[in-house]
Specification:
single chain, 210 residues, five-stranded parallel sheet
Length: 210
């Protein structure tokens, strides 16, 4: 198959070994070729602009610009861009943000080689590819109550081990207001205490420890 008709793929991951492994799988396929590789989100946007790949494999945790931000930037310039998220994280909030940003596929890095190849072909032909386990988590996320921007701020500070008083001081609000937000957070996450709230938020990808 000539290079003109191959599916041209961009690989975005900040680990060279991961990029190398993915490139080896892609280049072994007669109908695919690696068109570009990027190690951070900003370069991914630049290289997409230069190379216009058919399908982009995008990690979520990237330096300079996150995977979700890069997806949004690429899709803003090229609404028809086809992007598959490849990540070790399967928190439902991560999935939700990536798909909301415009990704058409979501694969975990422990997938089989055949799953990756099949997903690339499917997304290239206009289909979506989301594993059943991931889809189930997404369904749970869609059924949950949305945290407000302020509740997310409170939760992020809580995740750093701060008390209500410290949260109030950092966000310049009263301790009573913090308690109200904490109660809302516990209710929306379906947990009974702050520790469970932080643990659940980390597992679901609602907040991340940097």
């Amino acid at each position: 198959m000539s290079s003109q008709r191959r599916i041209r793929i961009m690989i975005v991951d900040d680990h060279p070994v991961v990029r190398e492994g993915l490139a080896a799988i892609v280049n072994r396929q007669s109908d695919m070729v690696v068109a570009a590789e990027a190690g951070d989100g900003r370069k991914a946007v630049e290289f997409f602009r230069e190379q216009s790949p058919d399908v982009t494999l995008m990690d979520l945790r990237l330096p300079v610009m996150s995977g979700v931000e890069a997806i949004m930037a690429i899709r803003k310039e090229s609404p028809s861009a086809r992007i598959i998220v490849l990540t070790t994280y399967d928190g439902d909030e991560d999935i939700y943000r990536a798909l909301q940003a415009g990704a058409q596929g979501y694969l975990l890095k422990d997938m089989f080689r055949e799953e990756l190849v099949e997903a690339i072909r499917a997304v290239h032909s206009g289909l979506r590819r989301i594993p059943t386990s991931v889809a189930a988590k997404l369904a749970d996320r869609m059924g949950g109550s949305e945290l407000t921007a302020r509740e997310l701020e409170v939760l992020r500070v809580m995740a750093r081990g701060k008390s209500n008083r410290e949260v109030a001081s950092e966000l310049a609000i009263t301790e009573g207001t913090v308690k109200g937000h904490v109660n809302n957070i516990l209710s929306k996450l379906g947990v009974s205490d702050r520790t469970q709230a932080v643990t659940t938020a980390l597992q679901r990808g609602i907040v991340h420890l940097e």
